Amino acid sequence: MSTLKAWLVRLRGPVLTVLAMAIAIVIGAFAFTDYPQQLGLVAASVDESDPHAGHDHGPGEHDNHDEDDHAGHDHEGHDAGQSIELSQQARANLRLKTEAVTVGPYTSYVEVPGMVTRWPGETHVSITSPLTGVINAINISRGEMIKSGEPLFTLRLTHQDLVNTQEDFLSQLGQLDVEEREIQRLTSASRSGAIAGKTRITREYERDKLQAKVRAAKQSMLLHGLSEDQIASIERTRTLVREVVVTAPLIHEDDSLHHDALEEAANRVAGNPAARLAAMQPPPMSLPSHNHIDAEFLVTELNVRRGESVNAGQQMAQLSNYSRLLIEGQAYQRDASLLRKAADSGAELQATMTGAGDEVETITGLNVVYIGNEVGTESRSLPFYVGLTNEIERSEQRGDKRYVSWRYKPGQRLTVRLPQSQVDDAIVVPKDAVAEEGPERFLFVENGDHFDRVPVEVIASDSVNVAIKNDGQVWPGQTIAVSGAHQLQMAMKNQAGGAIDPHAGHNH
């Protein structure tokens, strides 16, 4: 027992030493597991998409690296938290539009509902049968565009009154020829003294009566619908007219000029009722009479068929001239003062219309033509009318016929904008160029392949444009995104890893 005890005492020192070395080895192993890559003991996992991944470069080691993948990019001034990079595909997907920033006046508008409508007495023209007859030919088709003077219908006459008038006209022409020859004979005979001059005077008196009847017959045929050329043909060929060609009408140039002159004069003397009344009086001999101009019409109705018998005054077709239309707006009581002010000063109004892809089309340069005199019993609104110049948006040629489509059509709904106030010095951008986040408002400024989000102050806005304070946050000449600000805002929030507010960036 004493021997065993002595042997354990002798081993205590070496055992403790070995145990201490084992503990040291274990601790060292755990300590160095955080640095395997620095020590080169473990192969680093390198991202092949980053040519520098897995490398530990010292400060300034790549300052002059000529093959850096990011060389040539303009990232000056970028703040990673306020900037977003867009590829060309992303720009195309967003249908991103950019424009240069400009500073100028901003006009705020009050918006009221409106509708495109025809111009009473001008847009539609009814083509009626001048005489009783049978439709022999129809030279037009519905939807076709025609010009003034083009033939529309060929009408075979069956009107007995016109037939009798032509017969009387030919009979009187024959009698007039006889009287003219007799007067010539008597004139020659009276020079020789064979016949008294009194006889010649009697014959001249009869000739004058026949000439008066011929003139009356011409006027009667004009009233029946024959043209001056047709009457001249009857007189020249001494044959009756059996057919009448109905043509597209002309526009009286003096009427349109007079209307424009009245409107211009009323605008010049706006605010002065006495002067306005005086200006509306047409100056004597200021406009030519019987001056016609060619116009283009659309065949909107065709009411007869070939072989059909028609009476005098019966409608055969309707032609429509859509080159000038009206916008009928509905102003409410609170907007009446703005409407009167715009009408008196000749201020320009605007109209907006939503087109394909929810794009808003703005129509500028509009003026009030006149204000209605009755308030709607149900709508409680006052109608007013604004002139609208139309244009052809599509034309198709099929053979010798042309079919067109006008840009503005009666019945289209739109919004009329009445000018209210103006800010002289502001950055005016479209509504879709401004993003919102709480009380903050942002523009996205293009910077190379990035867009930097810049906070701005909104001083006024409407459904189309926003006025930004010109305080140096954004300056003229910079390029900004004028569409897709909401999508850029959401993409930036997603990039930052924050929760996406589905309403973030909307302008309500």
What would your notes on this structure say?
This protein is α+β, with helices and mostly antiparallel strands and 508 residues long. The protein has 4 domains: 1-58; 84-104 and 423-496, conserved putative lor/sdh protein from methanococcus maripaludis s2 fold (Beta Barrel); 111-122 and 292-419, Efflux pump adaptor protein, beta barrel domain (Elongation Factor Tu (Ef-tu), domain 3, Beta Barrel), CATH 2.40.30.170; 129-141 and 149-250, no CATH class. 31% of the residues lie in helices and 31% in strands. The chain contains 10 helices and 27 strands. The chain has helices at 2-32, 36-39, 88-94, 160-192, 197-224, 228-237, 253-268, 273-279, 336-345, 485-496, and strands at 83-85, 98-100, 103-117, 124-128, 133-138, 145-147, 151-157, 243-247, 251-252, 292-293, 296-302, 309-310, 315-320, 324-331, 349-354, 360-366, 368-371, 382-389, 392-398, 401-406, 413-430, 435-437, 440-447, 450-456, 458-461, 465-469, 479-481. Strands 3, 14, 15, 16, 17, 18, 21, 25 and 26 form a 9-stranded antiparallel β-sheet that branches. Strands 1-24-23-22 form a 4-stranded antiparallel β-sheet, with helices on one face. A hairpin with a 5-residue loop joins strand 15 (349-354) and strand 16 (360-366). Helix 4 packs antiparallel against helix 5. The longest helix is centred in the middle third of the chain and has 33 residues, at 160-192. The termini are far apart. The relative contact order is 0.16. Residues 30-75 and 254-290 have low confidence and may be disordered.
